[in-house]
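Why do we care about 3D structure at all? Because function follows from shape, and shape follows, mostly, from sequence. That is the central idea of this module. The next example makes it concrete: a single protein chain, its amino acid sequence, and then its structure expressed as tokens.
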Amino acid sequence: MIVRHIFTSLILIGLAAEVWSHIDIEMEDYYFPLEPMINYCKFADQCLHDFVSVCGQDNLGITRMFVDVCDLNEYNCDEKKQYRHVKLDICKYELVPAPEFFFNGP
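And the structure:
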């Protein structure tokens, strides 16, 4: 009985940690305009895809949905852009692009 309670508690703590790691943050908390250039290519190389959709916004206020944070970093690296992770509500009317591997066969 006690083992079941401990096991259930550990699962709940693990789920809470996973949710907490994806809480949307305010743009002001993440990016300061005078911050030095961020190396998005380095972030993209070290990132593991988790497929949790995020909203990105550039310095002109243009928003775009990304498959996950890794996708945002890869896009910034490839296109020389500076999208930042912002609250999901900002992109609530945009569609999430499907990952490329759904279209590429084996």
